[in-house]
């Protein structure tokens, strides 16, 4: 721990540095008539001292003197390397040995305690020695206050060597004291709010605890230990999250503001920033963390290349509340040149985590069938509601990133196909996104366009979207044919009165995307409402067509009456040609024909009306 030399070694090797004026006067004031007999050098500063007061309290000096006596040498000069706190702390320790009064404070108690341990100033040599005095101060003054405990812990960071404070277990006790005092503050604050009630106008719950700002001064390793201790002690998760957000804001802001850096400094700062992000993510409680904070950490983490486990944890937590994200949150920029504007891969991984969460919740409900049906329906409806919200968000996201010319078809299709069919009630948003992608990527060949448009379910397009598809030159011909076929199928169902077939087909299509995801009542009701609107349009068309057929029938009948002998055969062939609709009976009179015609139209209206009513319920 120190270099010991006698007079002969000092004269033969090198001349010891002359004691400073202050150090000489310091010893002279105590023993003005006794010359100092030992010179101790600490951090390049010499102290001319006397062995007697030092040996009485310092075990280390006593052992040095004893060792020199055994070797028949005289200890007159020694250097103490790596003394905790440097020359200022050593001077205070020497004042204590000489009996000079000085004040122990929060700023010097750690250095004094570690310096006393270095000099072995224990009770074995003198009662109420410096170690005991500093320990009393720590226990009775510092550790009883949260603010003072934080100051003591901060002083441990600047102490050299840094591990000597750990030897005295000072950081460990500071961390415990901070956690206990924080919980006590939380309890007192809660009781005061309870007693005060709503008398105070300001909302205290929205104000951060005062100690959160103090913790931001700690180094990240000490801060992590404090937060961990707080969580174990029982501090509220909301307070921990607020502290994490404030610490990240302060520490990362200071790092980003360093504009002028050398290469070495830049690497050091990035390492520090990386340690901060990874440590804060590892300290997240199980409760929900604000999405804005999670996305902010994810953006910083992707910039400085944090550990993969850290990024995956951030993505998993975002996926837990993906239904509440905004479009701006998902637009994560990419800094690499030659790549797409936004980080599509990260959004894809978040979607995978979200769908895994939905699948796990569904499997959990299936494994716990003992619950009441109302509870099961509520859980299933909640899961499907979240899925529908995510579907709308993803359609908006796809529309936003689609015009990017650097976005590859593979990445765009991977985002489109990952969501199941029942995540979208209508495919208008998906069609809009695909149309924007085709517009921004005119170099796609016909096969690539077909592979992209196959994800659009034409039966889930609104009438406005279908009209746009029919006039869109960017779409392949097969897409337009599919839309026209769907319209024709709807017309056929209405004409035949089999309106339930379209509903069944749509329900099967919605449920075919995921084997484990049943169509919720909300989705079915929305689908029925949509088809009900379409059915009204079809009925209006049928009525117009039926009126036209009646007019044609009257004209043809008048023509037949003018040419007798061929009326029966010609009327029969004409009735078959217009869809085998029984208009005439077996030779009725004019009044009977009109009654039959009215009955046919009434039956068709009642049938279509009944189908419409059933589809609404």
From TrEMBL:
Where the record annotates domain NPH3, the positions are 209-490
- Per the record, the coiled-coil ranges are 525-552
Which first-to-last residue range defines the signal peptide? none
* Positions with biased composition (Basic and acidic residues): 602-617
Pathways involved: Protein modification; protein ubiquitination
Disordered: annotated span: 582-617
Q: Which InterPro entries match?
A: BTB/POZ_dom, NPH3/RPT2-like, NPH3_dom, SKP1/BTB/POZ_sf
Tell me the keywords, alphabetical order.
Coiled coil, Ubl conjugation pathway
Please give the family membership noted in the entry.
Belongs to the NPH3 family.
Q: What is this protein called?
A: BTB/POZ domain-containing protein At3g08570-like
């Amino acid at each position: 721990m120190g270099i010991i030399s006698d007079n002969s070694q000092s004269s033969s090797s090198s001349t010891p540095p002359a004691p400073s004026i202050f150090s000489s006067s310091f010893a002279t004031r105590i023993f003005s008539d006794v010359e100092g007999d030992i010179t101790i050098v600490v951090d390049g500063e010499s102290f001319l001292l006397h062995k007697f007061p030092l040996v009485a309290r310092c075990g280390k000096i006593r052992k040095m003197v004893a060792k020199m006596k055994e070797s028949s040498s005289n200890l007159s000069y020694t250097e103490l390397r790596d003394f905790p706190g440097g020359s200022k702390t050593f001077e205070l320790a020497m004042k204590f040995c000489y009996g000079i009064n000085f004040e122990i404070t929060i700023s010097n108690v750690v250095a004094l305690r570690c310096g006393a341990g270095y000099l072995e100033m224990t009770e074995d040599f003198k009662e109420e020695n410096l170690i005991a005095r500093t320990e009393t101060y720590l226990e009775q003054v510092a550790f009883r206050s949260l603010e003072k405990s934080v100051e003591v812990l901060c002083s441990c960071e600047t102490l050299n060597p840094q591990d000597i404070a750990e030897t005295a277990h000072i950081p460990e006790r500071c961390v415990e004291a901070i956690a206990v005092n924080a919980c006590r503050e939380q309890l007192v604050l809660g009781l005061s709010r309870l007693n005060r009630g709503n008398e105070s106008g300001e909302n205290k719950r929205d104000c951060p605890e005062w100690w959160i700002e103090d913790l931001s001064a700690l180094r990240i390793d000490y801060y992590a230990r404090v937060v961990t201790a707080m969580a174990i002690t029982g501090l509220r998760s909301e307070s921990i999250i607020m502290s994490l957000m404030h610490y990240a804001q302060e520490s990362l802001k200071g790092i980003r503001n360093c504009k002028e850096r050398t290469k070495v400094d830049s690497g050091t700062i990035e390492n520090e920033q990386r340690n901060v992000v990874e440590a804060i993510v590892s300290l997240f409680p199980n409760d929900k963390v604000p999405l804005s904070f999670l996305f902010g950490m994810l953006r910083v983490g992707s910039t400085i290349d944090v550990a993969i486990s850290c990024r995956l944890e951030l993505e998993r937590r975002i996926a837990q509340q993906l239904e509440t994200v905004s479009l701006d949150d998902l637009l994560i920029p990419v800094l690499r040149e030659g790549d797409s504007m936004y980080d599509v891969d990260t959004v894809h991984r978040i979607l995978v985590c979200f769908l895994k969460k939905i699948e796990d919740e569904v499997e959990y409900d299936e494994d716990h069938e003992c619950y009441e049906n109302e509870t099961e329906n509520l859980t299933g409806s909640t899961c499907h509601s979240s899925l529908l919200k995510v579907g709308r968000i993803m359609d908006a996201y796809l529309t936003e990133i689609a015009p990017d010319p650097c976005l590859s078809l593979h990445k765009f299709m991977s985002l489109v196909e990952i969501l199941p069919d029942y995540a979208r009630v209508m495919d208008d948003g998906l069609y809009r996104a695909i149309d924007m992608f085709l517009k921004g990527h005119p170099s796609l060949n016909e096969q690539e366009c077909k592979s992209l448009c196959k994800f659009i379910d034409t039966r889930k397009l609104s009438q406005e979207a279908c009209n746009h598809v029919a006039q869109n030159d960017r779409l392949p011909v097969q897409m337009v044919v599919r839309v026209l076929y769907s319209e024709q199928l709807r017309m056929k169902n209405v004409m035949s009165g089999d309106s339930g077939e379209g509903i069944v087909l749509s329900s099967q299509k919605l449920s075919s995307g995921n084997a484990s995801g049943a169509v919720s009542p909300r989705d079915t009701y929305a689908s029925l409402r949509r088809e009900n609107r379409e059915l009204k349009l079809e009925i209006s068309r049928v009525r117009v067509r039926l009126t036209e057929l009646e007019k044609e029938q009257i004209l043809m009948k008048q023509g037949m009456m003018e040419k007798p002998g061929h009326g029966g055969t010609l009327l029969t062939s004409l009735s078959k040609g217009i869809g085998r609709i029984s208009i005439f009976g077996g030779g009725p009179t004019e009044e009977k024909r009109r009654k039959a015609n009215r009955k046919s139209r009434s039956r068709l209206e009642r049938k279509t009306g009944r189908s419409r009513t059933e589809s609404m319920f």
